[in-house]
Design a protein that fits this description.
256 residues; single chain; membrane; TM_pro_TauE-like; mainly alpha; transmembrane helix; transmembrane; TSUP/Inactive_protease-like
Length: 256
């Protein structure tokens, strides 16, 4: 464990929470790089375990706001989250067995894929009234299992994967996918954190400061998202995709 530098942890958590609240996903992919390069966590596995727990709590804070706005489709979350928790448990076990530096390089590759996916899907708004039913429940579960596996492997909330997965499986509007995704983000994060905590790979004091910043950022991001409205969503995703490419490039540079 490292001595807890509370200011960098608080600031990093605020940035992750802000992005989560603003566009409903993607912020958690910054958590691991921020913990390693901004906060100073030397062990990538500790960064992954700590970020998984912190992002789960931050997602719950965002979920409260979305639940008040009635944007969460609880039935879909009830099918998606349990399947994803199984995937997250398996992914976490596999992730712990991979060398930390190699895991970071794989993480950078995933970030590039996420950035490309955000750019391609920036105008997809979904179909109003879409929901989970007998025709698509198998697809919801399959998408949940796969996104949960990636979430557990990399120690991320996976909202940037869950939102398009929910939309692809059910064609629900993006606003509902954002709210519903936070249920899964929290469930995946808790599952991954438990696995890492059992191996002694969670820095609890650091997680506390990261969470405190994340709650502040999440509330601010959700409020800002309501003010900006849907029209700015595509621009926000473009900006965030650019940020993801920069961070991915930095990870590769640091490893070579």
């Amino acid at each position: 464990m490292v001595a807890t530098p509370f200011l960098p942890a608080l600031a990093s958590g605020s940035l992750v929470g802000l992005v989560l609240g603003l566009i409903g996903g993607g912020g958690s992919i910054l958590a691991v790089p921020l913990l390693i390069y901004a906060v100073g966590v030397r062990n990538p596995h500790i960064a992954i375990g700590t970020s998984a727990f912190a992002v789960a709590v931050n997602a719950l804070a965002g979920l409260v706001s979305h639940a008040k706005e009635h944007t969460v489709k609880w039935r879909c979350a009830g099918f998606f989250a349990p399947a994803g928790m199984l995937g997250a448990a398996l992914g976490a076990q596999l992730g712990k067995a991979v060398d930390g530096q190699r895991l970071l390089l794989l993480f950078a590759f995933l970030m590039v894929l996420v950035g490309v996916a955000m750019i391609r899907g920036r105008h997809d708004e979904g179909i109003p009234g879409a929901a989970c039913n007998r025709d698509n429940v198998w697809k919801v579960g399959l998408f949940g299992l796969c996104t949960g596996g990636l979430s557990g492997f990399f120690g991320i909330g996976g909202g940037f994967l869950i939102v398009p997965a929910l939309m692809a499986a059910t064609h629900m509007p993006v606003l509902n996918a954002v709210g519903t995704s936070l249920v899964a983000v929290a469930a995946f994060g808790v599952t991954t954190a438990i696995s890492y905590a059992l191996s002694g790979l969670v820095d609890w004091p650091l997680a506390g400061w990261f969470i405190a910043g994340g709650i502040i950022g999440s509330l601010a991001g959700t409020s800002l998202a309501r003010r900006l409205g849907k029209g700015s969503g595509a621009t926000l995703k473009l900006v965030f995709a650019g940020l993801i490419f920069v961070v991915a490039g930095y990870i590769v540079f640091r490893n070579f």
